[in-house]
Every structure is written in structure tokens, then in C-alpha cells.
# Entry
Amino acid sequence: MGQWLTIAGVIPSLDLDAPSRVDGWRNREVLAHLSIQPKLVARFLETASTAQPQISLVANLSGTSTLAEAIDQAARRATDRDLNFAENVERVAPALECADLTATVTTMQGPIVLHDYLLTRCVEAVVHGCDFTDPIEPDADAMDIACAALRDVIAERHPELLAEVDSLPAMRWLDIATGRETPPRVLQACCPLMT
# Structure
């Protein structure tokens, strides 16, 4: 929630027609993509149950590439009415604050523990907040959460590369892991982890 609130406070000052850091997207498309996130959380909260999760944090982060084309098209089709990020955050906040973080929610990638799903939303908020022109600097907690979640992907799939990851400044690691920066040679075979 913290990073969402940070972004909501900055949105009124953004030039929505300025090019963003995402190839082919303006700030408008980045905002459209972010605006759907709290709406999806609200929808997924309604599916909360004690069912066994089938998707892990790592699998969710790694699986975002399978949705890339649909995400791009949705962002490009968005109208001004869809750029209601702050309102969507405000609507979902009460339900989110009292939600059981151990519950399983059903997302587009499958059933996942709510706590893990919210970690993926923090990654999205940090990364896309930095995609704006001008970038929205994440608070320290949000940055730590995002970097740790992406580190978990390396820890599971390429544990021999953890020392290299841990040697990188947080913002550089975030950019490398999400394809915003060319990785050093030792990480080129496994990065970006998500886009």
C-alpha cells in the first residue's frame, strides 16, 4: 500500500504525454497499467479461501512475460476514465487492510497466497513508478521488498549467482532484473527475470 500511496500523490504532476522508460509507452500507458492493479487486487480478494496455492512468488514473477502482449494492448486501449489509480487504491484499501494474508486468492496466473501476490504488486509499483518521466523514487521499504522478491527468483533458479546479485546497488539490480538495463555478462543468461 505504501508505494501505491506514494505514486498516487505524484500522479497529478505527471505529464501523461511524456515518453516513459518503457519502449513505446508514454506516462499515460504506464499509469493505465498501474491503475488496473488495485482493481485486480479487489477482484482477487473476493476469491480468498483456504485452498492450497498452486503458484509461488517466484513462479508468478517469472510468469509475467506470458501476459506481456495482453498487458501492452490493454494499456494502449485505456481511456482517460481508466487513469483512476488513486481512486482504485482508495476503494481497495479497507478490504486490503483487514484481509487474511495467509489466504489463497485466485489470480490470472492461478491460486497464490495473498501475501506473495502482494509482494508481486509491490515489485510492479516500484518498477513502474520508476518508469515514469520523471521517475517516482520508491521508499526504502518498497525498494527492499522488490529487490528481495526478485532475488528470490535467482536464489531458486541460479543460486550460484547470488553473490553477483548481492554486489549490485539496489536500483541497478532492479533495472537488470526487469530488463531496464543490460546485465553484466555473468547474469546475461538469466536476466531479465521479468519485463
Remarks:
- DSSP finds nine helices and two strands in the chain.
